[in-house]
Specification:
Acyl_CoA_thio; globular; 13-stranded antiparallel beta sheet; Porin; fatty acyl-CoA hydrolase activity; hydrolase; alpha+beta; 6 helices; Acyl-CoA_hotdog
């Protein structure tokens, strides 16, 4: 499971902070493990330090996707992935990624990636890739009357003044600028109690032109706020005492080309919550109104008994 809840106490971090965009690019630059192979093709990645010392779920999603991309013909683009978070990852240890080539057909390729730490998988993912093709076209319409991202406060504006390691990590270390359209849930739950959430997001710095890097980075960012649509109707915020939140799985579909260094609108909703689990779905639009990706995730949400 990929943990979301901050710890009650987190150690302070010293030293200069690295540029978050450069950190993201380092995370997605996997090594080939000096040629080591089993029945899988092996890659190795690092982790960014977290106050909780647990690996951010979006990071291991993006790295697993990059590992799979390394084994597919460059002409085939990822169009879907389905992943399960199996264990919490340790951000102080490297992650080994093993890729199996499940199928290479005339138009589609399928890959299975396992992310390992201490010899056991922390994530299992299957991704599918396709040669470019033409066909029928339609999409959901982007919501109207959404405020411009420039008019909304950034996470730095909201949390940058707090001298707490979690607040400072969210404000300064994340490689994405996240701007909530609804009242953010960092410290309180105000505004609508509908099971909906929406944010503008883009990378803090420019990204290389490699389309695969943008697709992987979008997978990274897609895990940030999706579960907030589950928390809103219940009056919960991220600092709810005793609350435990973890991503259980993650599915994603890429529909159209995307650049993560341009503003993207991430519209989220939760159709159901029960059994200490909630389901959330998201649609990601570029600023021109093109639906570039869709996301679904189930999360565990546990709160103390009254």
């Amino acid at each position: 499971m990929a943990e979301h809840a901050p710890p009650a106490e987190a150690p302070a971090e010293g030293g200069p902070r690295k540029d978050p965009t450069a950190t993201l690019l380092d995370l997605l630059d996997l090594s080939s493990a000096e040629g080591a192979q089993t029945d899988e093709e092996i890659f190795v990645g690092t982790s960014v330090r977290q106050p909780s010392r647990r690996v951010f779920g979006g990071q291991v999603l993006a790295q697993s996707l990059v590992a799979a991309m390394r084994t597919v013909e460059p002409s085939r683009d990822v169009h879907s992935m389905h992943a399960y978070f199996l264990r919490a990852g340790d951000a102080d240890q490297p992650i080994t990624f093993g890729v199996q080539r499940l199928r290479d057909g005339r138009s589609f390729s399928a890959r299975r990636t396992h992310a390992y730490q201490n010899g056991v998988p922390i994530l299992s993912m299957i991704a599918s890739f396709q040669e470019p093709d033409d066909g029928i076209v339609h999409q959901d319409t982007m919501p109207a009357d959404v405020p411009d991202p420039e008019s909304l406060p950034s996470t730095v504006d909201l949390l940058g003044g707090f001298d707490h390691p979690v607040a400072r990590a969210w404000a300064f270390d994340r490689p994405f600028d996240i701007r909530h359209i609804d009242a953010p849930l960092y410290l309180s739950n105000e505004g609508s109690r509908e099971p909906r959430n929406a944010v503008w997001m883009r990378s803090l710095g420019p990204m290389p032109d490699d389309p695969d890097l943008h697709r992987a980075a979008l997978a990274y960012a897609s895990d940030y706020t999706l579960l907030e649509s589950i928390l809103r109707p219940h009056g919960l915020s991220w600092i709810q005492p005793g609350m435990s939140v973890a991503s259980l799985d993650h599915a994603m579909w890429w529909h159209r080309p995307v650049r993560v260094d341009d503003w993207l609108l991430y519209v989220q909703s939760s159709p159901s919550a029960s059994g200490a689990r909630g389901l959330a779905a998201g649609r990601i639009y570029n600023r021109s109104g093109d639906l570039v990706a869709s996301v679904a995730q189930e999360g565990m949400v546990r709160i103390p008994s009254a």
